[in-house]
Amino acid sequence: MDKVLLLDGDNCTGCKICELVCSMNNHGEYNPAKSYIKVLKNTDLDVNLPVLVGKCFKSLPACGKCVEFCPTKCLKFAALKEAALIRKRNKIGTIPVPVLNET
Question: Judging by beta carbons within 10 Å of its beta carbon (0-12, 13-18, 19+), is residue 16 exposed, middle or buried?
Fold first, then answer.
């Protein structure tokens, strides 16, 4: 994988448009259960966290529709080197999106 999906957690509203766009692009239907990106909500901390399912990167390059249609622009793909530099500069804020390995 030569790119990383970055999340600006302060801007994610939890709208789940990324889930709908992903499922439509990859499966031809608006069905969040078939999406390769899931938005998890921590209600105690009031935080939204988009998480990628490993299937997203199995057919690289990833389509990037989640990034393209995000209304708050909280998602972006970055090269590994750029992502490492961003992560090194930030203590809190923009982070790599976790990837779940589903079987």
Answer: middle
